[in-house]
Amino acid sequence: MMRRFIAPRNTDISLRSPYGVQLPAVETVWFTAKDGFELNFKHLPPVPGTTDMGPVMLVHGAGVRANLFCPPDIITLPAMLSAAGFDVWILNWRSSIDLEPSEYTLDHAAVFDFPAAVVKILELTKKKTIKAVVHCQGSHAFTMSIASGLLPEVTRVVANSTAMTPKVRNAAAIKLPIAMATLGKMTDYFDPQYGLYAPSFSAKLMDFLVDVTHHECRNAVCKHSSFVYGVGFPTLWSHHNLDPSTHDWIEGEFAHVPVSLFRQTRACLKEGHLVPAMDYSEIPTQLGREAPRTDAVFTFITGGDNRTFRPIAMRNSWKFFNRHSPVPLGAPPKHGFKEYPGYGHLDMFLGQYAEIDVFPDIIRWLSED
Which is one GO molecular function term here (predicted)? Predict the structure, then answer.
């Protein structure tokens, strides 16, 4: 049986206040996905006295949790959104390391998690629409859901790193099938926590492989995350973008990811777009080929130095959505794209200067009608 993840640090979220404002307390709100899986939000209300900007849902990637948006010693996106008047709901979907491990696919989240999450937020806020910021595999699952017509209440989305058309570096595309044919047959989960505690032969083998290939820093979880999520030294960020306390803090923020998700990711990479792994009628068979079943406006963003998903992947998602969203001659495209030089995959949210370089853009896009 797999060891349940226990974070070595305080599981509470502590946020630095931007602009000297007093932030409300973060509360945990539990709810049930459509298949009975127990999920929750970390809810940060808007700062009292600010203009009501409505609810926004933040969606993390795989093998992490809602806390990942909230490093303790930098000014974070949730804090800035709250200060700008947004009602912030950070979703712990079924990939969260705070929840029971499961061998999920993108389809499970697309069909069961996100529709239930949106309904719950609108029920509690008494609003009719919602906006979203989505990241990595969370962006994949969310894009699958919204393109299938399952999230009609979502009006605006900022998607980071990857969306409808994932693409990785050549070395990662070679590495993934090898990993699936070897380590993937020995375990049901890959877990960066193996850098701190390796409970099985496969975990010890993975730790050995990381030790002999990754020498970029002394943080075992950072190095294991680089090994699990692609090819890079490191893969998920540039070290110079993280302050030392954030680099230490990530040791408690990465854990189990099921092999089932990597198996589906490989299929998506092979096809060049998202493909379902399950036979759910809610997801169209022509997903990734037909027009997305949504009127939401997307902004696709990525770091220019992204070593997890290639920047061209987000440019291709942007082109795909605009191709299916015609506008009058001479009008600007419906959907937007921006690439951030010097940033990678996750330092878009964890970077010590993201409050200056990235977050104001996200807030501006979410503030548009």
Answer: oxidoreductase activity
